[in-house]
Amino acid sequence: MKTNLKRIRESQGKLQEDVAKDLGISLSAYRSWEQGTRDLNGAKLCKLADYFDVSVDTIIGTGFGVDVQEPSLTEAEEALLAAFRSLNEQGKGRLLEYADDLMQSRKY
Q1: Cys-Cys with 29: which of 25, 40, 86, 89 at CB 3.0–4.6 Å?
Q2: Looking at residue 66, what is its pLDDT?
């Protein structure tokens, strides 16, 4: 995965510093993802995929090369996605962190 993340970033002409700033994270956090020394959870993978406009599969490097038909979204999922897309990068980051906290609490 680390080589994929670096390859994707470089193919878009971005510096690590730019990505970290745009995502509202520290440079060291981004570098640790790219170097593979820090694990990426689902929310962080989605955030990166959205930022680079690629699929999560592209980042993690499944390499299957198969077009997968995604299931249709419910109304609630569509509303959540629309709200997420309307946020700036900082807001998106905060929302993803909140969602991650909810998932880790295992209450919901």
Answers
A1: 25
A2: 40
Distance (Å, whole) CA 61 – CA 74 = 28
- Provide the token pair at 64: 């299957």
| 26-35, 42-51, 69-78, 86-95: range with lowest mean pLDDT | 69-78
Q: How many CA atoms lie within 13 A of 73 on its CB side?
A: 8
The C-alpha R_g of the chain, in whole angstroms, comes to 15
Give DSSP secondary structure letters for 19-88.
Answer: HHHHHTS-HHHHHHHHHTSS---HHHHHHHHHHHT--HHHHHT--------PPPPPHHHHHHHHHHHHS-
